[in-house]
Design a protein that fits this description.
This is ATPase. The chain is built from 16 helices and 14 strands. By secondary structure, it is of the alpha/beta class. It has three domains: 125 residues, P-loop containing nucleotide triphosphate hydrolases (Rossmann fold, 3-Layer(aba) Sandwich); 169 residues, Winged helix-like DNA-binding domain superfamily/Winged helix DNA-binding domain (Arc Repressor Mutant, subunit A, Orthogonal Bundle); 109 residues. The strands form three sheets. It has a seven-stranded mixed beta sheet, with helices on both faces. A five-stranded mixed beta sheet has the order 10-11-12-13-14. A two-stranded antiparallel sheet has the order 8-9. Helix 6 crosses helix 7, helix 9 packs across helix 13 and helix 10 packs across helix 13. The protein is globular, with a radius of gyration of 23 Å. The protein starts with 11 loop residues before the first helix and ends in a 17-residue tail after the last helix.
């Protein structure tokens, strides 16, 4: 028997940021990250949703554009809270009307179209300066841990679920599936292509073979522009092995929230990775096994997920530590070694972090890690699931594990409190 767990995710970090926005706020972000759900939880007087055809909905009713304009402006003049979901679908003259009205009442505008959001906030926009901007992405790593901690007893499983459930649309699957990770491959195959297509449709862009090639290349480990260009050239998707040919595509994929860009420490180069582990997982399976065109073998897909999980844990904890410590997250890639995360304060290297998402270690691995991290005159951190699995404590390296992260943890008296007691 499957017992359903009703999970309502509270986005503490986003709530804190939202408290600092102005009376008029533009909420924007990639499709399916929970923007509408988040705003509906705030409370409002009127909520209007604009359909793709321009139809205006309020609850179960539809309104004419003229009736909507009249009602919305009157509500603002009465100092009420008005939400307009997918505001970019309204005629341009509505923005002129807002400009004429001025900042009255509380107006929350939601947009899933990132490029048009920039136009709304651009120099020629009639509403320039009237709105605060509020970008929403996936659920914050700290928040998903805090929400799920009381529902998942196994700490390792808690983290592995949290890695994927930062995508809000996966939470109902997790609630219903007897084995979430067995259900994940078929869910990804069914949903990710539609999600990507929907994102590109909203952005009024054509999803081409070049975009598809880039997403597969990044998932398959080609994560700097030179490697991506080489891969696309080998597939005859671009006419020359020239990184400048892929930079515009990478910029768009980053801008619409599919890829994230990580600076390579000390170099004027960037490392690209999928923002969402489930999107990465789908494109990795497609690049390696062509799952978009044939049936998924569940055992094979589960084996791949186990191989990829350390990569996803590295990304998860690198971003989490970056946010908790208030530092930028960069990556160190040299000819003969890599460091998972370099946490920086402007150009100053504050900490280097290695994430080892595994349960057994050899003495040789520990010595190699000590040697690698000893190159850096800063704080050195090794993150593992359980510190008792280490054959010995590495020298001059802090060891953090799930207990130290999920329980209250403070640094030395000279360091900032990392805030993990909130998780």
């Amino acid at each position: 028997m499957i017992i359903l767990i009703v999970v309502s995710i509270i986005r503490f970090s986003d709530l804190e940021r939202f408290r600092n926005t102005g009376r008029w706020t533009l909420v924007y972000g990639r499709r399916k990250v929970g923007k509408s759900y988040f705003i509906r939880s705030m409370g409002y007087d009127r909520y209007y949703f604009i359909g793709r055809s321009g139809t205006i909905f309020e609850d179960d009713s539809t309104l004419s554009y003229e009736a909507f304009k009249r009602e919305a402006i009157q509500c603002l003049e009465r100092d009420e809270t008005v939400v307009i979901d997918e505001i970019q679908r309204l005629p341009g003259e509505f923005l002129d009307l807002l400009h004429k009205t001025g900042v009255r009442g509380r107006l929350i505008a939601i947009s899933s179209t990132l490029w048009l959001t920039k136009e709304l906030m651009g120099k020629s926009s009639p509403v320039l300066g009237l709105f605060s901007d509020f970008k929403m992405g996936l659920i914050d790593e700290r928040d998903i841990l805090k929400n799920l901690r009381g529902r998942v007893g196994d700490k390792k499983k808690l983290v592995e679920y949290s890695i994927f459930l930062r995508e809000p649309w996966l939470i109902p699957i997790w609630e219903k599936a007897e084995n979430f990770f067995r259900a994940l491959p078929s869910t990804a195959k069914l949903t990710v292509p539609s999600l990507i297509g929907e994102i590109f449709t909203e952005e009024e862009r054509t999803y081409s073979r070049i975009y598809d090639g880039i997403l597969k290349a990044v998932a398959h480990g080609k994560q700097v522009s030179t490697e991506i260009a080489s891969q696309l050239y080998s597939l005859r998707l671009i006419p020359a092995q020239d990184p400048s040919l892929v930079h515009p595509y990478l910029k768009i994929l980053e801008g619409i929230g599919i890829l994230e860009r990580v600076k390579l420490h000390g170099r004027n180069k960037y490392y690209y990775r999928h923002s969402s582990p489930v999107i990465d997982y789908y494109y990795y399976l497609d690049a390696k096994y062509g799952i978009s065109e044939r049936e998924i073998q569940e055992d094979q897909a589960e084996k791949v997920l186990n191989e990829r999980m350390p990569h996803y844990a590295e990304q998860f904890f690198s971003n989490l530590l970056s946010k908790e410590m208030g530092l930028w997250c960069e990556k160190i890639v040299e000819r003969d070694y890599e460091v998972d995360a370099a946490l920086t304060d402007f150009k100053r290297l504050v900490a280097v972090v290695e994430v080892k998402w595994k349960e057994s270690f050899s003495g040789g691995e520990i010595r190699s890690l000590e040697e690698k991290l000893s190159r850096f005159p800063c704080r050195r951190i090794l993150f593992v699931p359980r510190r008792e699995d280490l054959p010995k404590e590495p020298e001059k390296v802090e060891v953090w594990d799930l207990d130290s992260v999920l329980n209250e943890r403070t640094a030395s008296s000279n360091d900032k409190h990392l805030g993990f007691s909130q998780i």
